Amino acid sequence: MNLLTFQTNEELNQIGASIIASLVQTKQNAVLGLATGSSPIGIYQELIRLNEKGYVSFKNVRSFNLDEYVGLPAGHPETYLSFMNKQLFDHIDINKENTRVPNGNAENLEQECKLYDEMLADASIDLQVLGIGHNGHIGFNEPDQNLHGGTHIVTLKEETRQANARFFDSIDEVPKQAVTMGVGSILKAKMIMLVVRGADKADIVHRALTGPITTEVPASLLQTHPNVVVLLDKEAAKYFH
Ligand code: F6R
Asked: Can you tell me which residues the record assigns to a coiled coil (predicted)?
């Protein structure tokens, strides 16, 4: 595992974006696994800049997002599809037909999960971007006695809903369920880039990467993956010294 600590957000964003950009420069039809949330936003902004400058093109890139809320109306600004359009896809030359976010409004959600897994199996992710939740979740794989390998419907933990309430008018509006890629699919990615910012994540990221491997800290499973790069800002890195 390659742990990189950055003194400034600007440097973290530049290195994070250059890891993605160099993959895409050498493999133009790369398959990216993408995350929403606040952690990757600065990296996406840097990718937009690199794309505008002509240093990298996403024309032949395919992408799969980790997760989506269940039941938010299509077009709601907090759906993860809206997030991805606003934060990245609307501003780069990616073909939107090659971007996938699970459909949280599918009539048959079980079927949607199966379909997503079939698409993932066909595509094979080259690089998966991840953030980490305060409870150690990755995607929306919440701490539990058992974890799922494939895409599934999940009931969000109260702490996750609280953490995400900042994007909604009130906690009551935060959906109670989501569709998420499973840890099996995440760990199948050829490379994983975990992005962690802020003192409030320092303890969980340290426990996940140095503590026991346990389903109660889903991110601890990343210890079993052969090719993980972790980008930490200096606040999140505080227990690694
Ligand atoms: C987002 C996702 C989540 C977030 C995590 C951290 O697609 O799957 O696991 O990465 O909740 O969120 P932020 O980055 O907002 O702290």
From this structure: none
